[in-house]
Amino acid sequence: MSTRSVIFKKITTDKSVSVYMGKRDFVDNVNSVEPVDGVLLIDPGALDGRKAFVTLSCTFRYGRDDMDVMGIVFRREIYVSTRQVYPPLLDREQAVHTKNQGKLLRKLGDNAYPFFFEFPDNLPCSVGLQPGPHDSGKQCAVEFEIKAFSAESQDAKIHKRSAVKLMLRKVQFAPETDEPVEPVTRSRDFVTADTPLHLEVTLEKDTFYHGEAINVNVSVTNNSNKNIKNIIVSVDQVSTVVLYCNDSYVKSVAIKDSGDAVSTGASLQKVYTLLPLLANNKERRGIALDGKLKHEDTNLASSSLIKEGVLKEVMGILVTYRVMVKLIIGG
What we know:
18 strands, mainly beta, 4-stranded antiparallel β-sheet, 7-stranded mixed β-sheet
């Protein structure tokens, strides 16, 4: 059984430059990030003496393009790096870094030239806030893209006919750890009771992957004189926009209204299973999602993992998750 590899390709309108890439998702493993590699195919006749360049950029967008007024733009470039690909500054063989580049060069011929970028340690991952069903324009998001273009020089004016863009995603991957998860306990005293209400919550682990169920072990000891009418367990997503403000958005992405009651003097120990999925949160405005390529499906945003020494302010949007257990008391 043969596996068919997918090649992503885009060509400029004037046919001077074509960009080829073997993938558009690049994984951040916390300690390292997969490099961006690809190949440019140039047409010397269409170039007509111009040079060919490739730019890797990371942009934080917090407003629609049509809102850019009076010279104020609602986007900020976090990172930009440009490489001259043609005429090559290195021998073509020396510029090959991956097997995929080597295969593309052999297939495309002598007018193909490789390009290669490494992500800096302080860049965020691709993440965006889901717009509402009636919102228009681009979402608030951290976005990555490759731009290939031809021009007289790197700083010369770039014509739309001579440029092409390809969106990329930098996605977070968190390795599992064997460290035990400590239980969280809370006690509540009441004026009219001599003994408190005690709640203990435990998770089997602290790292969960997309599509994985979360088992929440809840233990309630009700020595108070209050009756517990209901127990509500939820998984909350907390998104904080840190680049231009410190606004936080808390959204429950999975919730279980159990209806369980615990009367005075009684106790309860039960495991509640929750499954946070984007499918159950579509069209909910403000939910943080992993980066999106065109109209492809994506996931709820992964938790933001920040390397030591990296400023939070350049991360754009920070995402964390928490499990919340609420005891509803009557009276």
